[in-house]
Amino acid sequence: PGMKESWTCASCAVKVHRSCYGVLDEKSPWLCRACTAQQNLEAREGGSLVKTLAIGSTPPAAPPWRRCVACPRTGGAFVPITDKQGRISARWTHLVCADMLPMMTISPGKDSVDA
């Protein structure tokens, strides 16, 4: 596999570079971290989070794993943020946003970004 080999999430279709996003799992179909978080929550809740909305109703706010702490975009390649104790928090960021913010540290081979 090449350094810039791209992977596509089987659920949301986000494309990532294997080396940039840290794709270690080579199983197929592959899920991004945000979709994995949603799948884990759905398993705990006992069903799909996708609900049919009535015409004219307001769609629910994006779940935490679809909201970046650094920008308003809700799509893209997200990673969770760890706190100072190394625990995964409920906050998420785009990998590219984390790379541009001096207070965030991207550690190679980790599944999260340190804040």
UniProtKB/TrEMBL annotation:
Q: Which InterPro entries match?
A: Histone_Mod_Regulator (IPR050701), Znf_FYVE_PHD (IPR011011), Znf_PHD-finger (IPR019787), Znf_RING/FYVE/PHD (IPR013083)
Which branch of life, at top level?
Eukaryota
- GO MF entry, a single one: zinc ion binding
Ranges for domain PHD-type come to 9-36
Q: Which GO terms describe its biological process?
A: regulation of transcription by RNA polymerase II
Keyword line: Metal-binding, Zinc, Zinc-finger
Q: Which PANTHER family match?
A: BROMODOMAIN-CONTAINING PROTEIN HOMOLOG, PHD FINGER PROTEINS
Protein name in UniProt? PHD-type domain-containing protein
Q: Which organism is it from?
A: Octactis speculum
